[in-house]
Write a structure and sequence with these properties.
Layout (H helix, E strand, L loop, with lengths): L1 E6 L6 H11 L3 E4 L3 H7 L14 H16 L6 H12 L3 E4 L4 H11 L2 H16 L1 H14 L1 H11 L1 H23 L5 E6 H10 L5 E4 L1 H5 L1 H19 L1
Parallel strand pairs: 1-4, 1-5, 2-3, 2-4
Helix pairs in contact: 1-4, 1-12, 5-9, 6-7, 7-8, 8-9, 9-10
Length: about 240
């Protein structure tokens, strides 16, 4: 059984993530992290995940996520930390399934055309100016029409979408396939923009999806809790 959870790295969803992991009782928790990022995320407070030779784009994204997390009063990467902590609590293996983040960002920088780079700088400036409002707007637009949102992103930022979404979807889908040969029950934690693409690549696999919009909505999250509780009770009988 695979439960795929679409998360958001700057949203207050740690409690929801912890509940899903703990009460689905997975053999393994697969997280959208590479080994280096995972080590930095779970290290002592104050340890930086950014080195002096990190790509500029990587540093900018990390800085943006850190500032948005502070505005939302959450720990940067708190969704993944919650998944890892809950997984360890129930004795599940923790498996990193993402490509090396710094190398991916380096490839994005190298592959961007001048026009795409300028366009990215313009939209980044707007995001920095209206951080919280833009983040909420992006979440609403994506949840309302995911396909249309990705289509527009692909038109504006073809290299960004190819490297950050398409190629990583393929890579993570293969990692999930490999893990499925070892584990019977897995929870997979990935950014919400990856869920549909990965599931399409794993079309021959039965996957229970929980999306970010579900966890952000109290009524829908309560329904998810009830379903998980019912499955846990049935398994215990």
């Amino acid at each position: 059984m695979i439960t795929m959870v679409g998360t958001g790295h700057v949203f207050r969803i740690s409690e929801q993530v912890s509940f899903i992991v703990k009460y689905t009782w997975p053999d393994a928790v697969l997280v959208e992290l590479d080994e280096r990022r995972c080590a930095a995320l779970t290290s002592a407070p104050g340890d930086s995940r950014i080195s002096d030779d990190s790509p500029r784009l990587y540093r900018e994204v990390a800085e943006y996520q850190d500032k948005m997390s502070k505005k939302n009063e959450v720990t940067p990467g708190g969704d993944m930390l919650a998944a890892i902590s809950a997984g360890k609590t129930i004795g599940a293996d923790i498996v990193c399934i993402d490509r090396d983040a710094e190398q991916t960002m380096r490839e994005v920088e190298e592959g961007m055309s001048y026009r795409e780079r300028r366009r990215y700088s313009f939209f980044s400036a707007i995001d920095r100016l209206f951080r919280r409002r833009r983040t909420k707007l992006t979440h609403r637009q994506f949840a309302a029409n995911e396909e249309e949102y990705i289509r527009k992103m692909r038109k504006r930022f073809p290299t960004l979408v190819k490297k950050l979404i398409d190629e990583r979807n393929v890579y993570m889908a293969e990692k999930i396939r490999e893990a499925s040969e070892k584990y019977n029950n897995m929870v997979v934690m990935v950014g919400d923009a990856h869920v549909r693409g990965i599931c399409e690549l794993l079309e021959d696999t039965e996957i229970n999806m929980i999306r970010l919009a579900d966890m952000m909505d109290q009524e829908r999250m309560d329904e998810i809790r009830s379903r998980i509780w019912n499955r846990t009770a049935e398994a215990a009988e």
